[in-house]
Amino acid sequence: MSIEVNNESGVEVDEAAVQRLATFALDQMHVHPEAELAIVFVDEAAMEQLHVQWMDEPGATDVLSFPMDELRPGTEEDPTPAGLLGDIVVCPQVAVAQAATAGHSPLDEMLLLTCHGILHLLGFDHAEPDDEREMFGLQREILAAFAGADERR
């Protein structure tokens, strides 16, 4: 897996944990080991600019996903082909605020947002109730499995 993590936000981010989660999530979704993913952490001003430009929504948001080759989840027998998965942009300042509201750590929120972004890159969405149940259920499963696997490291 080629996973590039860049922190341009000015906020400390555990990039190694984000990289481990991204690798784990892509493995769980049977994405080809040569697929490429970029994860960028940006400040609120940069995120607001992207949010307005791409979603026509005001203010900074927590995560945006920009798919490239429209790859979809594979199976163990038939993994996703190699290609450019896309880019995920996360705003740590928004994540920190959301973590406080949710009652968990900022790192847990950034990992959740990274997983959420990966699922969007793989074609999942939450616009409709059934899609939301599927995506959020899968997100919970991946994060729980990752937490168990990461603790064993």
Automatic annotation (TrEMBL):
BP terms from Gene Ontology: rRNA processing
Membrane spanning residue stretches: none
A GO cellular component entry from the record: cytoplasm
Cofactor(s) the protein requires to work: Zn(2+)
Protein localization: Cytoplasm
UniProt EC number: 3.1.-.-
Keywords for the protein's UniProt record, in alphabetical order: Cytoplasm, Endonuclease, Hydrolase, Metal-binding, Nuclease, Ribosome biogenesis, rRNA processing, Zinc
Main location: cytoplasm
Binding-site residues, Zn(2+): 116, 120, 126
Entry note: cofactor: Binds 1 zinc ion.
Keyword Hydrolase: yes
HAMAP family associated with the record: Endoribonucl_YbeY (MF_00009)
Protein name, as recorded: Endoribonuclease YbeY
